[in-house]
Automatic annotation (TrEMBL):
Keywords: DNA-binding, Repressor, Transcription, Transcription regulation. The keyword Glycoprotein does not apply. This is TetR/AcrR family transcriptional regulator. It comes from the Bacteria. Pfam families: TetR_C_1 (PF02909), TetR_N (PF00440). Residues 8-68 form the HTH tetR-type domain. Residues 31-50 bind DNA.
Length: 213
């Protein structure tokens, strides 16, 4: 059989192409016209699968974040649940940093995001955290994750030793930070997460031992 002149489109193929375009050109680089060019089709063909770019972005974000792990919240181990969630959430963002504004936005009506939020909040409350604390813990953990995933402390230093050698004696090794940025950033995230969870453990003990009104 002769090959069709027009490529056969599918929603998964459109999402893959859109994510590739976002990874390469940034979120602002995605338009339905440009995506159609990437797929060698007319823009009108895309609209038969996705009514708007926003609808497409939601599904792309859902696909990227489907590996975020909230399964640990089901057994009462709130610390283990937060650890798995934080690590997998950070992994999803660092794999596709240009998609951050969509991934990190509030869940709105996104089914996948709401499912995770429900599991996290329910798991924390089920483990004994008051609902107000559960809400604040979810927010605080997200702040930690986003800060770690969106900025690099180590990459902020110049790799020229002359910048620091004479004027900043306490930064005599700062020129080496960029070279080891990935390791430093990963270890720094783990340190921050561990310290955060240790602090929450103390709060948890106080909350649980407080007399009820």
């Amino acid at each position: 059989m002769a090959r069709p002149k027009t490529p056969i489109l599918s929603r998964p193929a459109i999402r893959r192409a859109a994510l590739s375009l976002i990874d390469r050109d940034g979120l602002d680089g995605l338009s339905m016209r440009k995506l159609a060019q990437e797929l060698d089709v007319r823009a009108a063909s895309l609209y038969s699968h996705y009514r708007t770019k926003e609808e497409l972005l939601i599904e792309v974000a859902d696909e990227v974040t489907e590996g975020i792990d909230v399964s640990g919240f089901g057994g009462g181990d709130w610390r283990g649940g937060l650890t798995a969630w934080a690590r997998s959430y950070r992994d999803a963002i660092t794999a596709h940093p240009n998609l951050l504004p969509v991934i990190a936005a509030g869940p709105g009506r996104r089914e996948e995001a709401l499912r995770r939020a429900d599991a996290i909040h329910g798991g924390l409350v089920g483990a004994g955290w008051p609902p107000r604390y559960a809400t604040m813990i979810g927010a605080s953990t997200k702040y930690l994750i986003l800060g770690s995933a969106t900025s690099s402390f180590a990459r902020g230093f110049d790799d020229d030793v002359r910048v620091y050698r004479d004027r900043y004696p306490n930064l005599s090794q700062a020129h080496r930070l960029a070279e080891h940025a990935a390791e430093i950033d990963e270890d720094s995230f783990e340190l921050a997460l561990s310290a955060f969870l240790d602090g929450l453990t103390g709060v948890y003990e106080r909350v649980r031992s407080a007399p009820e009104d």
